[in-house]
Sequence to fold (324 residues):
Amino acid sequence: MSNRWYSASAPGKFVVLGEHSVVYGKPAVVLATDLRIKCSVRRSYMNSLNGEKLDLYRQPHIKYLTRDVHYCLDFLTTSQVPSGSGMGSSAALSAAIALAISTEKGEEPSERQLVDESYGAELYAQGNGSPMDASACVHGGGIAINIPNTNNELWTIKRNDRTWRVSDIKVPDLSFVIGNTGIKAPTGPQVEKIRRFKEKSGFASEIIDEMGKVTLEGYSALRKNDKEKLGRLMTQDHKLLSILGVSCNELNKLVNASLPYSYGAKLTGSGGGGCMVALTDRPDKVAEAIASRGGTPIVINSGSEGARIEKSIADGKRMDIPLQ
Ligand code: MEV
Fold:
């Protein structure tokens, strides 16, 4: 048995516009970040994760991703992506693990195969959702979903009666600051909350339709580099997400603190806690405002490379990186 390590990494992501409504097939715009998750695997006599016995029932992503692996593996991970915070940690982890496992098997998976693995792992773990995070964390750069006339289509994914047409978009030269509330909020319950709201009330569907329109307008503002309009639409999207019930006081506090120094701000990801994002020309002022209201600012670079094979081994330490 070879006990060589095989390593891969994938970037986290943040949603510029369209989270939650994308689950219902509406458009979305999402960018990969320069925060990455790395994973290393090697054959072993027992499954382990970062030096401890691996309980697959507590690690549903790994359980799914190893469903066709008939031997034990050691896993080492290192993360710069805050977990359970809307920054794509579960899709990035799944993409990195899927690529490391395929490489260990001697395979060379396509991006589409990695997206199917990563999206499959997320569905297995969280029950419902779109392939947005998996697409961004595998492909990297900038991703648009269900936006007409984007000419660089990557893949189309269908599930039940929904279709997501995923395209590569040019990464805008814009500066974004993330604010982390520090409250962990897994995606599954937030997605389920909106599903129940939508089932009970036509009002929720109207809000979701409106979010779709806001995202389409926002995408065209982004293409024209119209920061004022894009920012305004991000703030409007935050209000619509709040009406759907996925914001919280801590997120609203950080959004409001950022607004005087931003074009606009909104929660990013599934909400209920986690992170917000502000579009700004004054990242230092926004970071200060976020910190003064108890949040952790992260000045990110967007549009980073997607999932890739790594030469060095993950160090088995998780780290939530604050201000860069
Ligand atoms: C979470 O990053 C994004 C959501 O839209 C869920 C999903 O698309 O699967 C809330």
